[in-house]
Amino acid sequence: MISRYFTHSLNVVKYYNSPRQYNFLLTRKDSIVLNEVLNRFVDALTNEVRYEVSQNWLDTGNLAFLNKPLELTEHEKQWIKQHPDLKVLENPYSPPYSMTDETGSVRGVMGDILNIITLQTGLNFSPITVSHNIHAGTQLNPGGWDILPAAIYSEDRENNVSFAEAFITTPYVFVMQKAPDSEQTLKKGMKVAIPYYYELHSQLKEMYPEVEWIKVDNASAAFHKVKEGELDALVATQLNSRYMIDHYYPNELYHFLIPGVQNASLSFAFPRGEPELKDIINKALNAIPPSEVLRLTEKWIKMPNVTIDTWDLYSEQFYIVTTLSVLLVGSSLLWGFYLLRSVRRRKVIQGDLENQISFRKALSDSLPNPTYVVNWQGNVISHNSAFEHYFTADYYKNAMLPLENSDSPFKDVFSNAHEVTAETKENRTIYTQVFEIDNGIEKRCINHWHTLCNLPASEHAVYICSWQDITETRDLIHALEVERNKAINATVAKSQFLATMSHEIRTPISSIMGFLELLSGSGLSKEQRVEAISLAYATGQSLLGLIGEILDVDKIESGNYQLQPQWVDIPTLVQNTCHSFGAIAASKSIALSCSSTFPEHYQVKIDPQAFKQVLSNLLSNALKFTTEGAVKITTSLGHIDDNHAVIKMTIMDSGSGLSQEEQQQLFKRYSQTSTGRQQTGSGLGLMICKELIKNMQGDLSLESHPGIGTTFTITIPVEITQQVAAIETKAEQPITLPEKLSILIADDHPTNRLLLKRQLNLLGYDVDEATDGVQALHKISMQHYDLLITDVNMPNMDGFELTRKLREQNSSLPIWGLTANAQANEREKGLNCGMNLCLFKPLTLDVLKTHLSQLHQVAHIATQYRHLDIEALKNNTANDLQLMQEILMTFQHETHKDLPAAFHALEAGDNRTFHQCIHRIHGAANILNLQKLINISHQLEITPVSDDSKPEILQLLNSVKEHIAELDQEITAFCQQND
């Protein structure tokens, strides 16, 4: 029954010692003859025949040997009593030798043999399941196991374990894929697997040196790899390969014997130090007939397919807990509940992880600085949005390249990244470096930092990197550094300039004081006194020239220097300028020559004062730094077209010359060469020349060699003309001074008041004095004056405040301001507060005469008119008579249009047009300060237009018409007198 129907589920445990049971053939009572025949037949059967017949039906071998007890020694019997239970290492993946059923019991050839040994000895075997022989090797410790069945004998293994006598021998075979052209040999380059515990590995390696040998843990598991093509062949035992191929790979694999190698010997292995167990097992195995072993082997080879769970053979990262007992329904429910709880917990953890990832993503993208993460190989694996937006769309591809790529903008980062060492979170090192990076548009300077981040679940760390764009900061620092250097240089130049100015100012002042001291004495002759006065005057003029240079620099730098071009005869201007330096050249025995290739009768349009100042400065320097030799000036005109040309002038000297370093500093303010500091001068002349030429759209260059000399070249584009007669020249008119003027002087400095009073007395005028603005305002309120000359800087009330007070009182008194501050904004400030003129000190007699004559002309004009406010007109036009005429004629023309239009709009009932015309007349009257017209037009503007008010409005319009007629007469007279 067991062999037919319960091969895998039942085993023979032992033979039951009970009275023998017999089997009979039953017949009917009335079949006496049949009963007798059967008895005779059965009695005639021998025991051998009976055994053969039973074996044909039982198919279970001859187990009669089990009835004979083993011949064990007393010591061995005692050992069995002390060790009734033994641990067997069971590999369920080695069919047909060793398998397990669904209950975990040992099956296969070794299972049946162990059952027989149990029947023979009474030993109980507890299986310890291992997935393969590597796991079995971990159990080879004393006390961890007792028997290893189906162990293949090898000399190497005998050093660790002892073997029982071999009871199965089987050849080694090669297993390969079945193919039409299959050859029973190994070829070069094949991948052949061999279990690591096979002793013939070295022998096969020598036999097949060109084959790649791969050691595997389990031969049975390697069959699938041969079938899938991962391996070309496999070394296995014949019984194992026969079972695997017949049951699982019948049409896919085949095997053939390995020639020249010994057969595999299968036996039981034991821990060393257990000789009793070895002897007991050997006696039990010897008692089993070889035919029984062969029968058992054939039985399991022919057994139907057995499902083998091979998951453990392919998993190296998980441990499978083999359940040795049947799981109860309750444990299944508990396990399911545990899994459900794990799933829920995993979902919660996954949700938290997703929230954390989302939060970190939002946090990363909210950072204004570009941030990115790089793995150990230098690949950018993550970045925030600022990183992507920093680059152009095309260059973003380069930014995502590996950092070791030469096209990556971060290649400088990766070269130093591996120097970063991992440290604790409390002391994590951050590495920074500054370098330039290309963002696809331009090079940007960044301050880059990176640090190492260890990932607990990963073998390699990552780099967290970020940067801050410091391009603007760097440029600002650079600009600040440049400005700082400029400030330092300016301070040095200023100190040098102050030292130079101290010398340049104190020297002429000392000379003037010396001459004045000589003049105060009586020991000088008339000629000596004239000479002293002349020299003192010349010294004062040179001092004024120095101050003028400083003021020119300020005008040029502030943009207030205004060129006044006019038609000029350049050869004559150059010749006259050279002639003025003739005495200086003669005193130093220097040959001064001036030549020109200008065509005759050509005039150029240029500012003569600026051109002369440039020429004078360059010529003065040439003579100053030339001790011997010559100074040559050449002038030429290069034509561009009929109306335009270029002036070219060179000033060449044979002086000391300049080095390259000195030439670099030459045109800077307050700059002087080492030779120049030995001469007098402010260090501003060449700088002024350079700026003046620049304002004239020209160019100033130099060529100099130390010890040879210097050549300055000037080129200026100009307009030209040959029509000499077309150049208007104003004939000098004699200056006519007004008579009997009463003049008030306001100045806190008594010396200045005395000098100005003496100058005005010399011109025949009565002068009154005031020490400040308060006193001057009081005197004007008590007495009539024709002119007020006031200093702008005074205590209590300065000249500007005094002027404003007088203008607020509607005073038309002419006011002249005097200031020692010769800056342009000072003059504008005076004119804006109501002064008629703002003059710069010192005030010479010629300047006084010129402006007093203009005061006479305006005063003469003002006495002829009753309605026109010439004083207001003069203030608005800065005494420009031509502009005054244009303004009056424009007023006359516009009012002659607006007044008839107002009459017509009033009659048509067009109130809007009427008020627009009156508003225009009112505005023009305000500009010219026509008080009567202002009052009438204002009354017309505020009077509402209606039928009741029309008579009043017509009367006012007629008054405007009459007043404009009177103004027309005065305007006509003014224009005729000033044609």
Automatic annotation (TrEMBL):
4-aspartylphosphate, modified sites: 791
Record domain Response regulatory: where: 742-856
Domain of life: Bacteria
GO molecular function: ATP binding; histidine phosphotransfer kinase activity; phosphorelay sensor kinase activity
Keyword annotations: ATP-binding, Cell inner membrane, Cell membrane, Kinase, Membrane, Nucleotide-binding, Phosphoprotein, Signal, Transferase, Transmembrane, Transmembrane helix, Two-component regulatory system
Catalytic activity annotation: ATP + protein L-histidine = ADP + protein N-phospho-L-histidine
Modified residues (Phosphohistidine): 919
SUPFAM superfamilies: ATPase domain of HSP90 chaperone/DNA topoisomerase II/histidine kinase, CheY-like, Histidine-containing phosphotransfer domain, HPT domain, Homodimeric domain of signal transducing histidine kinase, Periplasmic binding protein-like II
Record domain Histidine kinase: where: 500-720
Primary localization: membrane
NCBIfam families assigned: PRK09959.1
Name of this protein: Sensor protein EvgS
Originating species: Escherichia coli
